Amino acid sequence: MTASRGHRRPALALAGTAAVALAAQLGPTATAVAPLRRRLFPRLAGAGRPGRIALTFDDGPDPESTPRFLDVLAEHRVRATFFVLGTMLVRSPWLAADLVAAGHEVAVHGWEHRNLLARGPLATYRDLARTRALVEATTGLAPRFFRPPYGVLTGPALLASARLGLAPVLWTRWGRDWRATATPDSVFGTVTAGLDGGDTVLLHDADCAAAPGAWRATLAALPRLLAECRRRGWVVGPLGAHR
Prior knowledge:
Elements: H1 2-26, H2 34-40, H3 42-45, E1 52-60, H4 66-75, E2 81-85, H5 86-89, H6 94-101, E3 105-110, H7 121-139, E4 145-146, H8 155-163, E5 167-168, E6 173-174, H9 184-192, E7 200-204, H10 215-231, E8 235-237
Parallel strand pairs: 1-2, 1-7, 1-8, 2-3, 4-5, 6-7
């Protein structure tokens, strides 16, 4: 009896350790549920000052699409935050300088658009560190913010971002603009449904993780969205001015 119990104890300890490790990996993924994060983790959700809207773009930069977004933003005198992928930035590093020259923020989205759930602590840290280093090298500025692909945070991602001095930020409103069925009207309607002061808006300036050409619907909707924000009295800008 005693020996049998003794054999069980190491197995139970291993099971307990595995459960703790799994909880540490998966626990933060609950923040992917938008209503939950807005209520319990407002800063992570991107909630900011009530008179402002933070405008953010993911998945670029792409030389075909990103300059067109820069033109629209310049025309409306609006700055934004661009969460870039390392694999995209390394192909067009000059676009980072263009973003900064236009007054926009450049932030970390990861090296590839891969769900971090499948990555361990070391791989996650290397992914974020590599992207952060490239952003700093191409812009001359240390990035401040991090957004995980698909908005799925993990324990290792939280630890890595803290070590690298990156604040994780998701969003409160999005345009569902990655879909093949997206239209300028659908993007505008989805973003503005329930839009309120203090929100952070997620859009996409590239289609590397979206339906081919989906960014065109976003680009066409952008002037109307900016005009609507002005009509409601909100100042649209980057995350750094929002928090």
